[in-house]
Specification:
The complex is a heterodimer.
Chain A lengths: L4 H12 L1 H26 L8 H31 L1 H9 L2 H5 L5 H22 L1 H10 L4 H27 L4 H30 L12 H4 L2 H8 L15 H14 L12 H6 L10 H24 L2 H5 L1
Helix pairs in contact in A: 1-6, 2-3, 2-6, 3-6, 3-7, 3-8, 3-9, 3-11, 4-8, 4-9, 6-8, 6-14, 7-8, 8-9, 8-11, 8-14, 11-12, 11-14
Chain B lengths: L2 H4 L2 H5 L6 E12 L2 E12 L3 E5 L6 H8 L7 E6 L8 H7 E4 L11 H11 L7 H11 L15 H12 L6 E5 L7 H16 L3 E5 L3 H7 L2 E6 L2 E6 L1 H7 L4 E7 L4 E6 L2 H14 L4 E6 L3 H9 L6
Parallel strand pairs in B: 3-7, 3-8, 5-6, 6-7
Antiparallel strand pairs in B: 1-2, 1-4, 8-9, 10-11, 10-12
Classes of the chains: A mainly alpha, B alpha/beta.
């Protein structure tokens, strides 16, 4: 079977420039620096070697900080590396020659997404050794390390898909880059901003129907990673506290508890709830709800992108 | 309802070996208030080198984009090698190579990788790539640049590479939008010779250019457009004669003197030669029709309208 030509070309072009190696270097440097700072921060507060529990907590804390920085870097690098994927073709005026070949618009989009994803996966797998420092300290199992990198991979793939799709909707790389960063910022900040604004506006803080839906917090890459890496003991809220993932976990638990453990407390009328058979005590974990939400957004944007990549003749068929 | 929508699909694919490569029937293309192409009727004979001439904004590139299945006509119908590009874009793309007026090349690829990428995009098997790339590079005289980076090529070389790209799937029809723009005189001559070679290989070529003298030497048929309208179409000499256009003939005599004469057509030109040699007994050593017929034709037909 022939490899997607766009993927093959993109990988070749990407790996030919020094930029790719610079990005890998910066990525690993920042993660190593994070691990070093967390380790140093902990060792200056006491002798960790004499206290197994403290060492285990340090391992966990280091793992979560590395995960958080890794996710932050993904959120920063995906727009930087992918925003120009299709807008760049338009700007360089290479899209028309591509569109008159036998490649289908979907093939062009898939090639671009796979190229972006492959590079992000390379970055994440290159970071596994840094993650394993936490394993050596204790506090996480190898499976936890893989789970953490795995969920960040899923987010990287979905974000690459979304940013590539946005790139297809624009004509200039500069516009696409601004749009990609704006969209990523919205993805991270909009849900929490809405949620906390509504919670402040509610004021009652009680267990009532006017509480904002916890779903707003779930549609967020940080929450997804936090929830997916909570560990086998999900009541570990508080353990290794002080890192952003733990804070996100606490807030989601709190938000759900304010709504009778439901994601969908937004609908105040019981009859409405019954009409759509929404289970008030649904057991979907936050990472599943969030990933599903991001998948839906990515699918919608991809559909728009494929339509945009079609020539008028193909659109009308 | 436009003819494009009404035409039955089978009808347009039933004539794959029609003597006509491209036919446009009452084709119009509108962008908002701008009528880029206005009721265009065009017939490009198979095997011809067809020049589409017109000032900037005449609608040439829009016409090429419609032929290449990149744009839909607002009304009217186009058939390319017997297929309607708005209904069967992939059928048209298999049989047509398109070279747009801008040089869209990937700078971080080698010349051979660039052509291999397009070979893959046309679904050509990997086993055929090496021979295909060798053949194309030889044809466009870029064999020595096979492993050079695309961004290191001169503009003329990039144009030739772009032409090789349009030829990668061995199309029967080539649509070339301003392929000579920005080329130095030598590169233009090389391109012209290359296009003649391709035409000799049986390919129909539709080309637009601002350099009329070049088209005049090369084209078997031309169409002149202005402000989206077709002003005239056919073999250049026929158009000139139909319009009663005149041409200049320069005659040099053995005495060293030269004279210019204006004649209306072939018959009058032959009559002039007979008169000078037979009737007047003058020693004619050179009898040259001065180029500029197409230029004259263009100037006499167009009014410099800008949309």
């Amino acid at each position: 079977m022939m490899m997607n030509p766009v993927l093959s070309r993109e990988l070749r072009e990407r790996m030919r420039t020094g930029r790719a190696f610079a990005v890998v270097g910066i990525f690993l440097l920042l993660l190593t620096l994070t691990a070093y700072l967390v380790y140093q921060g902990s060792t200056t507060t006491g002798d960790i070697s004499s206290d197994l529990a403290r060492q285990t907590r340090l391992g966990r804390d280091l793992y979560e900080w590395v995960l958080f920085v890794m996710l932050t870097l993904v959120l920063f690098f995906v727009p930087a590396l992918t925003a120009g994927a299709i807008a760049g073709e338009r700007e360089r005026q290479t899209l028309h020659p591509l569109q008159v070949t036998l490649l289908r618009p979907r093939g062009i989009l898939v090639g671009k997404v796979l190229a972006g994803t492959s590079f992000m996966l390379l970055l994440l797998f290159a970071a596994l050794p840094v993650m394993m420092v936490a394993y050596l300290l204790g506090g996480i199992r190898p499976l936890d390390g893989l789970k953490g990198v795995g969920i960040i991979c899923v987010i990287a793939i979905l974000l690459t898909l979304m940013v590539t799709a946005l790139s297809a909707l624009t004509r200039r790389v500069q516009t696409a880059t601004l749009l990609a960063y704006g969209f990523t910022a919205l993805l991270v900040l909009l849900g929490p901003l809405l949620y906390f604004t509504m919670r402040v506006a509610d004021g009652s803080q009680g267990n009532d129907v006017e509480n904002p839906p916890a779903l707003l917090l779930a549609l967020n890459p940080i929450t997804i990673v936090a929830d997916a890496t909570a560990g086998e003991n999900s009541s570990t809220v508080g353990v290794g506290s002080g890192n952003p993932l733990n804070w996100a976990r606490e807030e989601v638990v709190k938000a759900k508890s304010l709504n009778d453990d439901s994601w969908f407390a937004w609908f105040p009328e019981d009859s409405f709830r019954a009409q759509f058979r929404i289970d008030r005590r649904d057991g979907f974990p936050a990472w599943a709800v969030g990933t599903l939400g991001l998948t839906v957004i990515a699918a919608l944007l991809s559909t728009l992108a494929v339509r945009r990549l079609r020539t008028p003749a193909e659109t009308e068929r | 309802m436009s003819a494009t929508i009404e035409a039955p699909a089978d009808e347009v694919t039933a004539t794959p070996d029609a003597p006509v490569a491209v036919r446009a029937d009452h084709v119009s293309k509108r962008y908002g208030n701008l009528l880029a192409v206005n009721q265009l009727d065009l017939t490009v004979p198979r095997g011809s080198i067809f020049g589409l001439i017109g000032p900037n904004g005449a609608g040439k590139s829009t016409t090429f984009a419609m032929i290449s299945s990149l744009l839909l006509p607002t009304s009217g119908r186009i058939t390319v090698m017997g297929a309607d590009p708005s209904r069967k874009p992939r059928t048209v793309r298999r049989r047509m190579g398109y070279m747009p007026d801008n040089l869209g090349v990937y700078d971080n690829l080698r010349v051979d990788e660039y052509l291999e990428f397009f070979a893959a995009s046309y679904g050509i098997a990997r086993t055929e790539w090496t021979d295909l790339v060798d053949g194309l590079l030889e044809l466009v005289d870029l064999s020595v640049k096979r492993t050079a980076m695309v961004n290191s090529l001169s503009r003329g070389m990039k144009q030739r590479l772009s032409l090789a790209r349009a030829l990668v799937h061995d199309p029967e029809l080539l649509v070339l939008d301003e392929p000579a723009s920005g080329l130095d005189p030598r590169a233009r001559v090389e391109l012209r010779e290359l296009l003649k070679t391709l035409n000799g290989m049986g390919k129909t070529i539709i080309i637009s250019s601002h350099i009329l003298s070049e088209l005049e030497e090369m084209c078997t048929d031309v169409a002149i457009m202005e402000a989206g309208k077709l002003l005239a179409a056919g073999p250049p000499r026929q158009i000139l004669e139909r319009l009663g256009g005149s041409r200049n003939v320069r005659v040099r005599f053995a005495s060293g003197t030269s004279e210019s004469f204006t004649v209306a057509g072939d018959v009058e030109q032959a009559e002039l030669l007979r008169r000078l040699v037979v009737d007047e007994g003058r020693d004619v050593v050179e009898f040259i029709e001065e180029s500029g017929g197409l230029e004259q034709l263009f100037m006499s037909l167009t009014e410099g309208i800008v949309q």
